[in-house]
Amino acid sequence: MRKELTGDEIGEFALDNVDDSRFETVEVDGKIIQRNRAEGYVIECDGEHAVIAAKAGRAAKGSQDYWAVGQMISIRVGENRPVGLIYRVDVPVKTWNADDQNTIHIYVELIGEVRMEADGKATFTNGISGFPYMGATAHRIRALDLQAIYVASRSNAVSIGHLSQDPSIPALINIDNLLARHFAVVGTTGVGKTTAVTLLLRKIVEKRPDIRILVLDPHSEFSTAFPDDAITVDANRLDLPFWVFKQEELVDVIYRGQPPIPAEVDALRDFIPIAKERFKNSSSPSSHLLLKREVTSLTADTPVPYRMADLLAIIEERIGQLEGKAERPHLKSLRNRLESLINDPRFHFMFGNRTIGDTLPQILGHVFRIPQEGKPICVFEMSNLPSEVVNAVASVLCRMAFDLALSSDGAIQTLVICEEAHRYIPSDRGAGFWPTRQAIARIAKEGRKYGVYLGVVTQRPGELDQTILSQCNTVFAMRLGNEHDQQIIKKAITGAARSTVSFLSSVANRECIAFGEALHTPMRMMFETIAAKDLPGAHIYEQQAKAKAGTYQIPLSSVIQRMREGGVDHDDPFDETAENHFLPQAPSVEPAHSEPHAAPGRERQEWSARATASDSPDYSRRAPKFSRLHESLSGGYAEQAETGRHAPETNREPDQSGFSSSDLIRSFRKQR
């Protein structure tokens, strides 16, 4: 009767009967050595994993470095070669004989199969037509097979580095799949996430020059990373007027992240549309109807301009009609909140303009690069924005990115990069700002249809909204030490190669485990090196190096000024990027209307066309100071009326991208 062999006995039999014809002679470090390519034999396979028995040690004929965690091996099955990734190696007897051969077990995860075509070309597929049988030979994967796995045949594939296992083989990704299905870059602090994102954006711009990129930069690092391809916008170079905020976003600004008072929010919902209607019909602002008779088709979310002076005046009128009523204290409180906000110099980017006009074309054109003018990237620095309104500003920008793509029928394609994304879309549904989460989630779920894409960057994937992370179908996972974060990434990996998560705690800087739609198969890779001068945050490192070397005298007065004002003054010599002012040159579509207040602070660069009254020498005398705000509200409308009724909107010439600004804005507003 024939004896049935166990898996271990099959491996031992095969190892003791090695065919010498399988040896090859190679040169390693200048020495000619003989290597055995058929060193291991399958002793177990369950369809996803396989166990291989091999000989190792000083007396073993094969190379000792074949069997190491993270390496790829192939197994001969007929004419095809299933490919496996080594995730564990051990010695069954738990002892090691340094002077003899030792039997070792190699545990691999099967990830696909290399097949030989009729023309002799090797191709890779994620499926496996024939699984390894007991005793099938396993060996280190050939360079030809590695190339078949990682060298994509698509014309839009670009190299972003090289394989960790074989530096001669480039790590290729498909740019269209990377964008269309969204992507994420995760890793603990200091491992090179921002540098990796910089590299990816450069490759995207190079391969897809039609794409516009908006980077939400919370640490002011990216401004030096794209000297030729980007403009920089921060709170000192920005006019993002209050009227472009939806009501939820404006409420978040007004209450500075604190729970809003429902009665005051309801009042805003009623009064803002009336203020918009008054601005629209401002030829005779002193002859208003009674508040209860004023009717408008506008809503609090319609992105059309209005004056804060009108809103405050409406609140005052309403207070006058409610003598002794319960709502009166709420309206007074709302009025005081608005006045305090307007007078806060940190909010100049919202309330700093002395004139109110329809600057939406300039806002959208500049931030979203329409036309691109050779700079398709907008780096939006958020470090000097008031911390309590960062979420609201992020919500506005993400919402506008989606609305632009929708209103242009996908012609304006934009990639939104959310650095430190766990700030905006935390896993805790009760934390963060709901409109921001909603705007980013809408991009993640629906953006691909209209051409607006999402790139998520975070050091704590466990603290990120898992619904949004699951929409990122390409992931570059750099070193992660937290076990919870590792498990989040493991759940995100589809198909094979889940065992690669075990490497995440020990991969090197600039190294990552990449998987998803943009890659043919999961890979362990090393990103390309970026020149020091082009690294994100290079200006910060340069200042630190100068201070360390003692060659830099710190301008304390400038530092203190920046601390007090929350940013960099345009004329401050301490600001090395002041030439990139947020100053679109196109005139305002609508005539500007003077806002009857001027909050104290530095003079701002404005893009809305100033009215004649604003440009006159005695403007400072006629424009009331904030301390006289109520006096201005009661009798200053005649002064505002000097600009007259709004002129009809004129059609602008289409830009180089083929977009007509007036038609685009009209469609944009109809969507609201």
Can you describe what's shown?
The protein is α+β, with helices and mostly antiparallel strands. It contains 21 helices and 22 strands. The strands form four sheets. The protein has an eleven-stranded mixed sheet with strand order 11-10-21-20-19-12-18-17-13-16-14. Strand 20 (511-516) and strand 21 form a beta hairpin. The termini are far apart.
Give a quick precis of the structure.
With 672 residues, the chain is an alpha+beta fold.
First and last CA, distance: 83 Å
Rg is 32 Å
Tell me the number of helical segments per DSSP (H or I, 4 or more residues long).
Answer: 21
Q: Approximately how much helix is present in the residues?
A: 25-40%
Output the structural class.
Answer: alpha+beta
| Average pLDDT score | 75
Which strand-content bin applies to the residues?
Answer: 15-25%
Offer a few descriptive terms.
disordered N terminus, about 675 residues, single chain, elongated, eleven-stranded mixed beta sheet, alpha+beta, six-stranded antiparallel barrel, 22 strands
Write the layout of secondary structure elements.
Blueprint: H1 7-15, E1 23-28, E2 31-36, E3 40-45, E4 49-56, E5 72-75, E6 81-90, E7 102-116, E8 122-125, E9 137-140, H2 143-150, E10 157-163, E11 170-174, H3 175-180, E12 183-186, H4 193-207, E13 212-217, E14 230-233, H5 247-254, H6 262-280, H7 308-321, H8 328-342, H9 348-351, E15 355-356, H10 360-367, E16 377-381, H11 390-407, E17 414-418, H12 434-450, E18 452-458, H13 466-470, E19 474-477, H14 483-492, E20 511-516, E21 523-527, H15 538-549, H16 556-565, E22 593-594, H17 612-615, H18 619-622, H19 629-635, H20 637-640, H21 661-671
Parallel strand pairs: 12-18, 12-19, 13-16, 13-17, 14-16, 17-18
Antiparallel strand pairs: 1-2, 3-4, 3-9, 4-7, 5-6, 5-9, 6-7, 7-8, 10-11, 10-21, 15-22, 19-20, 20-21
Helix pairs in contact: 5-11, 6-7, 7-8, 7-19, 11-12, 11-21
